[in-house]
Design a protein that fits this description.
Blueprint (H helix, E strand, L loop, with lengths): L5 E6 L2 H11 L3 E8 L4 E7 L9 E6 L3 H4 L10 E6 L3 H10 L3 E9 L2 E7 L5 E7 L7
């Protein structure tokens, strides 16, 4: 059955991106392999606590000036990725302490509790704890 294996996130620099996603957000580094024939790295990460078979984020360094224009704008200013949590208060507090930039404050909705943050490039993410009976809740 088809499934998403990776989601590509265009970044300016691998190490800068790893410092943010792994260092600040606590993501797990899954793989970081240099590919000499293409002079690039295959760098994948996944959210903290995600199972080994979870979809990973491929940190893809922009290779052309055109690709670089999309860094931080992959969803045209809308929320791009949805980071589900089982403890919103814990993760919101940890990310706040780590210096995460909140674009929209925490709010309760019918589907759960959510706040929007911008990553180091400006991509918007939902940190969301879905309510019981909701998809992924």
């Amino acid at each position: 059955m088809p499934h998403l294996a990776h989601i590509s996130l265009i970044v300016r620099d691998y190490d800068e991106a790893l410092a943010y996603y792994v260092g600040k957000l606590g993501f797990t580094l899954v793989e970081d392999t240099y590919q000499p024939d293409q002079d690039k790295r295959w760098v994948t990460i996944r959210p903290p606590g995600a199972p080994d078979n979870a979809t990973t984020i491929l940190l893809a360094r922009a290779a052309t000036p055109e690709q670089a224009t999309f860094i931080g704008h992959q969803a045209g200013g809308r929320v791009f990725l949805f980071l589900a949590t089982d403890d919103f208060a814990r993760d919101h507090a940890a990310y706040t302490a780590a210096g995460v930039h909140w674009v929209r404050p925490a709010a309760r909705h019918d589907y759960g509790t959510v706040a929007v943050f911008a990553d180091l490039y400006g991509n918007r993410w939902d940190l969301v704890q879905f309510g019981h009976g909701q998809p992924d809740g």
